[in-house]
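Handout, section B. The chain below has 369 residues.
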Amino acid sequence: MSEAAIQAITMPKWGLAMEEGKVSAWMAEEGAAIAGGEEILEIETTKITNVFESPVAGVLRRRVVVEGETVPVGALIGVAAGAEIPDADIEAFITDFQANFVVEASDAAAAPEAETITVAGRQLSHLRMGPEDGPPVVLVHGFGGDLNGWLFNQPVLAEDHSVYALDLPGHGRAEKNVAGLDVAGLAALLADYMEAVGIGAAHLVGHSLGGAVTLKLAIDQPARVSRLTLLSPAGLGEELNVAYVKGFAGAEGRKEIKSLLQQLFADPQLVSRDMINEVQKYKRLDGVTAALNALADAVFPGGRQGLVMRDQLATLAMPVQAIWGRDDAIVPPAHGEGLPDNVTLHWLERTGHMPHMEAAGDVNRLIAG
């Protein structure tokens, strides 16, 4: 085996704004055999701490970056090679890489930005990434979320797809008027949005409330949906953690927001300072509290899910998959049991209500597949 078989493991770029990351914990020891896609370390960004999957296979010969160290995107964090490669060759590879490594200038200015769009008389916000002629994928967030919640998914899926992420009314940069909107109203608005941006049919990916919205559209207008992926979806049972919903709608203080966000993850330590800051900034916008409370009352009347579409799943002709974290504390994982045979169910262990963030690699593969 030659020096060409020495493979660099570098700091990934998760999301358009990421410029550096901190190695918070190594999960693989030096000398251990690692496989492509194997979880080998945890990386902390300003957004969230996430598991990094090795892009290469081999023996982990060096952990170049120690735990607690922060390095820029693209920096060498580890080296994989066959056990027969001499240590001297490994050291020479590291020295050469670091001598020639240049931190790339921030591409934030060139990165696509969210845009405002008027749909059916409402001001929405959306972000499109990927080749214009790629198969379309539309990402729909859950209650209290926004299009930035797809930071680990949209750039990856956009390598081969034309990917649209949307802010629903009351969320993100969209207008805060939610009058007359429930799941059916949001589904109709989603169809209007697809018409406005020129999408005939798309692979719809809906998280939580967004899962109920995309499911409703698939039922009402199946020609709009080529495939359907439901992430910890609402709409499959009456129960949900209404204390979280109402708590998030009314939360203002930092401590309260942090406690609520931690309920979304199997590992509460994933909630970062910046995540809390962004939510607190959003909650301070005029009209947000009233919008979230009104939407909660319309979608979850009496603390229950107002629209349950479980029995209609079997009528869908397009491919349908559901992805659920076993440790979801918001929408009961029990709602994923006993689904009809036309729905492929994927359980993710040690994952909470945010599988697209907490297990992004698995979710991206399932969506792309």
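Note. The chain has a mean pLDDT of 93. Compare this with the example in section A.
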